[in-house]
Specification:
By secondary structure, the chain is an alpha+beta fold. The protein is built from 6 helices and 5 strands, in the order ααααββββαβα. A 3-stranded mixed β-sheet has the order 4-3-5, with no helix packed on it. β3 and β4 form a beta hairpin. α2 packs across α4 and α3 crosses α4. The N and C termini lie far apart (35 Å). Bound molecules: zinc ion (2 copies). The site of one zinc ion has 8 residues, from α6.
Length: 136
């Protein structure tokens, strides 16, 4: 997404796109590796010296509330962030720690449970070895 596209996308979700918010969303849009607050902060602080970890945290909280980002919990007590807001599962490699998206067709429909529930998020995590680590 370009910066203009992001500003419009955030505006549609009633979020004012400050420079820092724009930087954080843009980061998540670019890096789909499910970063933590610490990772995002450490990667952005060089370009945005005024940024604080609290701002990163609060911005992500706002993004989740407004539904433009989803929170992903793969390990206890560690929130990760995903700009992909479709329902999908995750795979974590036990060896290198990389986290991958797993898209299953019909997941949304199957999670609907015959119209009884409206599912907003799922936390479905697989573990094993990624393709890189399998070959080693
Ligand atoms: Zn791996
Ligand atoms: Zn994901």
């Amino acid at each position: 997404m370009t910066n203009t596209e992001i500003v419009n996308f955030l505006r549609e979700a009633s979020i004012k796109a400050s420079t820092q918010r724009l930087a954080i969303y843009s980061y998540l849009d670019k890096y789909r590796n499910h970063p933590t607050v610490d990772t995002i902060y450490n990667d952005l602080i060089g370009d945005y010296p005024m940024l604080s970890k609290t701002t990163v945290y609060n911005t992500l909280k706002l993004f989740i509330e407004k539904g433009v980002v989803q929170g992903v919990i793969i390990e206890d007590g560690e929130m990760r962030y995903d700009a992909n807001i479709t329902l999908h599962a995750h795979f974590k490699c036990k060896k290198c720690g990389s986290i991958h998206d797993i898209f299953m067709s019909g997941l949304q429909e199957r999670c609907n449970f015959e119209g009884k529930f409206k599912v907003d998020e799922i936390h479905l995590n697989y573990r094993g070895l990624c393709d890189k680590c399998c070959g080693e």
